[in-house]
Amino acid sequence: MNALLGHNPMAISRDSKIQSFFQLPLITSSVENSLVGSHSSDALLALPVFNGGQISFQYVLSAPTSPATKVNEETLTYLNQGQAYELKVKKIGGSQHDTGKYFKSYIKVFFHDKRLQYTEREQIDSWRAQRPGERILEIDSPLSYGILDLRAEQRNLNMLEFVWDSTKDCGVFIKVNCISTEFTPKKHGGEKGVPFRIQVDTYSYNEDEQRKLLYCASCQIKVFKPKGADRKQKTDRDKVEKISVIDKDKYQPSFDVTVLTEVPIDNAIVMQRTQLPKPVVSTTCEMTPVHNSPSIAIAHNPYHNQPVPADVCSFDNETSSSGSADSPPANTVRQITKDTSDSDVSAWLRANRFGNYCKFFSNFTGADLLTLTRDELIQICGLADGIRLNNALQVKSVRPRLTIYVNIQSESVFHVLYLGTATCQELIDKLANLFNASPTVIVDVHLLGVNKIHILVTDEVVQNMPDNTQYSVEVLKNETTEQYRVLLTRIDQG
């Protein structure tokens, strides 16, 4: 075995894609055969990793990869709905003195397609309504081992969290209860199911330092009805066996287990939105192992009353694009320009009902946002919100229906009044603003007509006033009611 593990890494190019993410030595065909069977994940986890002493992690899902995946594509794994699959986690490298022996990991199932990620809240709410009381992701706690603390809260149907001891073997048996075709528009049958992702984030759990994200990895999956994954796996295998030997080299080999691919932390869909609380675990650790407790929520869990962290796609802690729970700040910018700061962009997005995308655009300035094309915005936000955001960014000032110039008798300059709706009430509001008064103190507006008659201004009169005309304004006060009447006198421009 050791001789095989020392084989030249360049000898088997098609295996390098899978193994390079985990810094594992490449596995020859004879070693692959030794992995087949119930202990294949044990063999993978036992392989040495040469990472220069840096801490890393390895996650292995006990489900085979599809044989119909091309060498330049990401692996795809088929799962059966409601079936328990073992997910082994292991720390690689580092020392207990540097990292401690306890870690906290989060598992989440979410959409692979970025467009669906932004509608995840609506999709999951619909699923929740159709299947009340059920979870998208759950753990079979009697089968799991090496877990000190496990939580699965009802408000986060697609996420689980647990604490584990890196000095012991650790395995979590997970079940995915939704199928890929449940989120496909129903037509006439035969719909192609959408792929999901399983992502695992691991955080430090030291008592003396700030908790930080150490490692993130994920894999692509599709979920079928019971036994459907086995049939799909056989169909793919038969398909590959029928093609020529030359064409077979275009496909990756199928492995009996799925090794989750490392995701750069900067690119990860991070599940941890807020700072985690400091761990309260002593060196003796008062938490109860899962297999000794019939309940998933452990009685000694020090985080039992803490909120569950949420990710960018969380459907419980994020406002939808159709509205925002938070009132926009009073100083929110009215329009995005190339000089708008990133913080003002976030405030503008929330104020204009694009709060769902604040995380995605968190570092965008106005210049960055304005460089995006309509097609790029649709790809990021989906069709409806993409078009709406593009229109909001490109909007120009609406031309007023009526523009008039007024001159207060005691002043020598004119003021411009732009009337967008051209109503009497809008004219009163504009005049009141001109005098720094409340509109309620202006009882009515008169227009000086022929033979110096006073014409009561109504909506119809305003709508028939000539555009770009000049008027002098005279304010007449009613001494008894303390209200005012405004008299407009047209100034001839000849």
From TrEMBL:
Chain spans, region Disordered: 314-335
CC annotations in GO: nucleus
Keyword annotations of the record: DNA-binding, Nucleus, Transcription, Transcription regulation
Annotated Gene3D superfamilies: Transcription Factor, Ets-1
Keyword Transcription regulation included in the entry's annotation: yes
Pfam families recorded: CP2, GRHL1_C, SAM_3
Keyword RNA-binding annotated: no
GO molecular function: DNA-binding transcription activator activity, RNA polymerase II-specific; RNA polymerase II cis-regulatory region sequence-specific DNA binding
Name this protein carries in UniProt: Gem
Domain Grh/CP2 DB: 53-297
PROSITE patterns (alphabetical): GRH_CP2_DB
Localisation per UniProt entry: Nucleus
